[in-house]
Amino acid sequence: xxxxxxxxxxxxxxxxxxxxxxxxxxxxxxxxxxxxxxxxxxxxxxxxxxxxxxxxxxxxxxxxxxxxxxxxxxxxxxxxxxxxxxxxxxxxxxxxxxxxxxxxxxxxx
Length: 109
Fold this sequence. Notes:
Layout: H1 2-10, H2 18-32, H3 40-52, H4 56-73, H5 75-82, H6 92-108
């Protein structure tokens, strides 16, 4: 989790945002489940909502807030992680997948 938190912080988000922990857990789930497709609304949001005793809507909103902050604070860093120029702000699932893939690729090097 330390590497995941490091990437999120590098993009401009701190633990002052509730979504910081949600997005970190979502990325970890995506990294642990590379062998099967993970559906964000059916798998990730409900799991996180149970874990953090909140609603799936709150999880979705707080992750989106984190992505908005990343987009505003470090758009270049997001593009570096994506590996291509980002023309638009990534969706929640795109962001989670993008960071998970980046971290998994870094482990293989």
